[in-house]
Design goal:
By secondary structure, the chain is mainly beta. It has one domain: Rieske [2Fe-2S] iron-sulphur domain (Rieske Iron-sulfur Protein, 3-layer Sandwich). It contains no helices and ten strands. The protein has a six-stranded antiparallel beta sheet, with no helix packed on it. Strands 5-6-7-8 form a four-stranded antiparallel beta sheet, with no helix packed on it. The radius of gyration is 13 Å and the shape is globular. The two termini are 15 Å apart. The chain binds FE2/S2 (inorganic) cluster. The site of FE2/S2 (inorganic) cluster has 10 residues, from loops.
């Protein structure tokens, strides 16, 4: 889990509707872009460790669907929005500093 704000990428690295896994040492973070907004969650599904970035973005619901068993999470909060996942994933706060996209603990 990220304990301080850390650079994930640069503005423009992701097109709208894209997401990817960012590896930071032993941490894996999902970075997703919807429109001009960026979201960051723990990179692994809480159900059985699927890589969330290999799943699907549902823009209308602001959620990501896991590729393994269709569990889904709210990109804003990490809350479960579809079973079989039951445990939320960590959601990070995003900051844009210059051209850098940073993620860190939510206030
Ligand atoms: S691993 Fe993600 S829903 Fe099962």
């Amino acid at each position: 889990m990220l304990t301080e704000f850390t650079k994930l990428a640069e503005v423009g690295d992701l097109a709208p509707g894209q997401m990817r896994t960012i590896r930071l040492g032993r941490e894996y973070v999902l970075l997703a872009r919807l429109g001009e907004e960026y979201f960051a969650l723990d990179g692994f599904c809480s159900h059985a460790d699927g890589f969330l970035a290999d799943g699907y973005l549902h823009e209308d619901y602001c959620e990501v669907e896991c590729p393994i068993h269709e569990g889904a999470f709210d990109l804003r909060t990490g809350a479960v929005t579809n079973p079989p996942a039951e445990v939320p994933v960590v959601a990070y706060e995003i900051r844009i500093e210059g051209s850098d996209i940073l993620a860190g603990p939510r206030a």
